[in-house]
Task: structure prediction
Amino acid sequence: MRVPLSWLREYVDLPAGETGRDVQAKLVAAGLEVETVEQLGAGLKGPLVVGQVLAIEELEGFKKPIRYCQVDVGRANGTGEPQNIVCGARNFRVGDKVVVVLPGAELPGGFAISARKTYGKVSEGMICSASELGMSDDHDGIIVLPPEHEAGSDAIELLELVDEVLDIAVTPDRGYCLSMRGIARETAIAYELPLRDPALLDVPAPNSHGYPVKVADPIGCDRFTARTVTGLDPEAHSPIWLQRRLQKAGMRPVSLAVDITNYVMLELGQPLHAYDRTRINGAIGVRRAEPGEKLTTLDGTQRVLDGEDLVITDESGPIGLAGVMGGANTEIADATADPGTGQVVGTTEVVIEAAHFAPVSVARTARRHKLSSEASRRFERGVDPQAASAAAQRTVDLLVLLAGGTAEVGVTEIIAPSAPHTITLPADHPDKVAGVRYGRETVVRRLQQIGCDVYGADDLTVTVPSWRPDLTDPNDLAEEVIRLEGYENLPSTLPLPPAGRGLTERQRLHRRVGRALAGAGYVEALNYPFIGEEVLDQFGLAADDPRRDVVRLVNPLSDAEPALRTTLLPGLLGALRRNHGRGEHDLALFETGLVFRATGDEPPAAVLPVDRRPTDEQIAALDAALPHQPRRAAAVLAGDREQAGWWGKGTPVSWADAVEAGRIVAREAGVELIVRQDQQDPWHPGRCAALLALVDGEEILVGNAGELHPRVTKALGLPERTCAMEIELDRLERAGTGRVEAPHVSTFPVATQDVALVVGASVPAAEVETALREGAGELLESLRLFDVFTGEQLGEGKKSLAYALRFRALDRTLTAEEIAASRDAAVAVAADRTGATLRGA
Result:
């Protein structure tokens, strides 16, 4: 919201020497975000005067049309003689009043003016455009003034070129500040000065003679005021003061009727719309659109309407999107000359609409049609419903004053029954929230300053003003008291945390996992926890897959990602795709974080108190309302694990590297994973491993790893043979032994024995490994699979698994007999459980 200081002074008698910077400091202290204070006319020096064009000579022989003009500037040049000025604009003629800058003056930006020879003539100054004076970005032509202004008079004062404009970033909860009325109220409170409320007007009572209006949806439109003005002069133009206020506020003057509605909207915060009465067929209506109905809006775009859109109608159909934008078929017609008679024709009768529409309905319509307007911005944030009648009256008064119109006696006003919002709070509630003693008198005074009616002694009954729909509960009222008393006056109090707790075991595991993966060469990539359901389709998840039961956000950051993630892989794979697209082809990324799994049994969340610590029961109830949030770790890989060079060929990543990433994570929890073949989307069915762990003697699935399915890599635009791993840390923590203990270092030598076992091709290597461990006994220090072989010499359906077994005792050097006995026992158990035979035996 751009607020000209000269306009603000109409409502608040600010001290004469008060500058825009001073007002900025006061408003910032009151909680408003005043981003900048623009100095209009900075560097502008006169003489800048009104001139009248006496003669125009067209200069020939140049690439563009050039005119040599004689301009009367009165006594402003000291002689009274006409000024000779060269000008290229063609939007003026002899007799027009223009803005002339004379030699010796300086325009904004350090542009000094002097007499100089150009196009073969001496130009004694310049005829100015709006852009050259810093009034707007309009380069189409020079400024043509109304004829009543005297030649030689000061144009700086006439055009109000010197001013200060405060640019305020209005937060969504302060919609009332999208108006001069709202900013003036905040300024008056900050300076402890009275406010001249522009909405305090004498408004005639509604009667049966007004323009007919039918509201079919009183929830979407709870107030509709209609007024009619006839006899408008189609040639009437907006006066300079009106145009300048619109320009300073960041709006472009269009025509008198439109400019007046925009002016009143800026003044009172109530969006209005003016209809050409001759273009309306029958009564005005308010209803929901029929799906598929079409409307051409004022921007010239034909829009297909949705059944949730609230529309303004007449007997021919929709004529406007309620609270967003009017329709082109009833817009105010520009004044034009009739080709036959030469008489100027245009809109002479208008119907003024001042209505109040539901904020959610307007916001959804504006978002649905990608059509944000000044009106929709205000309705979305909350408009004072009781200002509609005053805004309509103010518009009528200006049309009568500036366009020579006549206000009809008919007044239409449709109001849905409603009661003022009332809040009860203890008088010391703001004290408890802020930790400062304000006292009842201060609380009552501050609430009355913002427009509340306050009754009561120890317990206050507060009636919220109609322009503050953001005040809904006691804490909102406490915030108003605190901000007006000054945030800078709040004491700085550090909370006292309980001592000696440190990190939980869950947090320690989380950190250990991150360090271990980083040490293994993975790079951490943090992603937003939001997904769209399209990526779940690209993963090929079945309709009943629990990962499709997403938690949807009420107000998502992006419509493309409206839900919370149920897996870490979409974000990681997106990061991998972006890096690959920027030339990084050998990638290993990881992330640790929460996923969100809804059960459907979560109760509604309660609002917790802020004046005291919530009870354990309240915290437990809040936790119960949350979806299940398990902590996970995931990793993705693409390209080469080992790069090629003079030392030899590179090694591309494979499903085994993804499995090893899972083992790295599990080791940090003190868990030895059991790896088995699995089929799980989005992994390749033949290259997918289930990662299992023992919890209370029972195997549970803790994650999956392997190579992604080719259709998934194609759908997501990933490199071929991309691999991924995802594992649940909470389950690993339950399966783990707690803190990982450092291994015992023995001073006795190790004995290594290799065995190659032939088993069926369908026998998992994990089963063979488990059998070997159990059979070898306590002397086995470690076991590693170092070779897998298949070939004709083994026979069809057979494979050879070669293991390296390391034996060591803690208290002695092992004998050859002890080593052989342990080795044979391990082979015997493997043969008994898996049917393994020693290769070559």
Observations:
- The CA atoms of residues 248 and 313 lie 34 Å apart.
- The mean pLDDT is 90.
- The longest helix spans residues 816-834.
